[in-house]
Design goal:
heterodimer; A: alpha/beta; Rossmann fold; eight-stranded mixed sheet; 11 helices; 8 strands; 41% helix; B: seven-stranded mixed sheet; 20 strands
Chain lengths: 270, 354
Amino acid sequence: MAGSVIVITSGKGGVGKTTTSANIGTALAHMGNKVVLIDTDIGLRNLDLLLGLENRIVYTIVDVVEERCKLKQALVKDKKNPNLCLLAAAQTRDKSAVDAEQLKDICEQLKQDFDYVLVDCPAGIEQGFQNAVAGANEAIVVTTPEMSAIRDADRIIGLLESKEGVEKYRLLVNRVRPKLIKSNDMMGVDDVVEILSCDLIGVIPEDTNIITSTNKGEPVVNDEKSLAGRAYMNVARRIMGEDVPLLDIDEPTTLIDKIKKFFATKKAQG
Amino acid sequence: MYDNEFFVVDMASCSSTGEIINSLSLALETLNHSGKKIVLKLNDSQLNQSQLLSIQSLITSYGCILDTIETLNEQTAQVAQNMNILVQKPIEKRVEDKYHDDVNQEFKTFSMNMPSDNSIAVKDVNGLHFEADLDEIQRRQDSININSDLVKAGINPQGTFSQVQQQAEAKYSSVDEIQNINDTFMNSSLALDETENLAKNSIGVYKKAYDENIPEDDTWEEVDFYETPTNDPVVSDSKNTTYINQTLRSGQILESDGNVVIIGDCHPGSEIRALGDITVWGVLSGIAHAGCKGNLNARVRALKLNAVQLRIGNCYSRRPDGTNIPYIIRSSIFTPEEARVVDGEIMLFKINQN
């Protein structure tokens, strides 16, 4: 059975495409799926850094395309999880080194051996985006609750709709701050979903653990205490088809809040 | 320490008399040696009296004296003795020490191979070039393209995988067994028939010869990969050295067919490839490939070796996990190190440590 190719895209830069790719990939592999991550951000690669695989890369996607090595030679296995592989981008080239047909080809080949092929898309709507989307049959549009990111996401959704082959696209709202939403300083998740009129696949809270995990080269899903990690785990479950309720990201801060919340959940369960 | 009177010319890599004369005249032209006594290393080449006479007259024309000939060939030794030239046998050396011996020898050594073109090229995706002739860059890039043709891909991995799967399905009835076969296939990364023609190579951690501490979070496993072996190693022209007085940034490649000296840092994401040695007067954090056409005697030196990967010849090694130095504190911890190949493994030595 062929696996599915999921592209993770956003239009705007800096909203967390690469972080999302690394975490969802790790989470899916953690649950026993064979996962390959493809970094299509040629020239500005980062995915290897987030996974801590930077020092293991010998061949890149450009080497595969230019037939200097075979596809399987270029797959870098993860340090911890043998189910997870990375096909790294070349740092010394640019987006034009690969074209859409070649990437489609690579996706088709990897689909045979892996359950999930996650494609990390570069920012923008140019060649890099066109390449990344070429082989995908599903898309996750990452956005933050900011007007500029939502505008760009809207543009991306429009492009995805006109693209043949992408059957399904879902929205992931990243870097949500419940406190700011409460005080009406940030757009709520519901508002974002309403503006974009698109299915929601998950909500990820802003989490300082993300910064440390990026620097350490270890995805945050490996940290069970991290709220963002748990949220990404839930997203991975939803990708696998499970019906998981949205994570309660409204983290209580004071002790009284915590006690109140504890009783509230008791009551709800009872 | 070397004697000012003597000058050693190493002709061991030259095969014909023409080559010897050509290289010798170049060596004598390059530096001023008048009045010096020449020690000629000839290895195995067989020379008759007239050839030796012409070499002698060449040396005399530059104002030098042919004093000693170092040769393995008995006939050459006989002819030389007849001409009142001292003859000695080459000293046996361990291969890995060859490089250092050259420096520490009694005589100053001038190692000489056939000259190659001195072109360098720094490729940059932004179209920025270092100060080098445009023609030379073009020539260099052409040669890179030719080199890349050496490494060729073969069988379609996907096709082979389904073949393996089909065979497995036919052979084993239970699903578990098929899964096992699939796993073995996936774990080995390549099906057996695909690895024909390819050499199995692995990236281990590079270790420090003087410090055995490896960070705990490094899993220590070696990463296997397959490469097309280089058939004949190309040794660099030790005369040809490129100086770059600039920081090498992410995405930039520096290629040279000699040695490379960089005055500045090499940031992560940059790559240096040289036929000879690589010396970085700064922090080396990118990828460095010394002796990139199979010369295992090449070395990598830096004020701080923090390279993502070190490659020497066909030896690959990676930085231990968890030892990356953040940008901010790096300058305070310079410990000049040299990487060389010992028993097929890349080891780091303190400079001047044996």
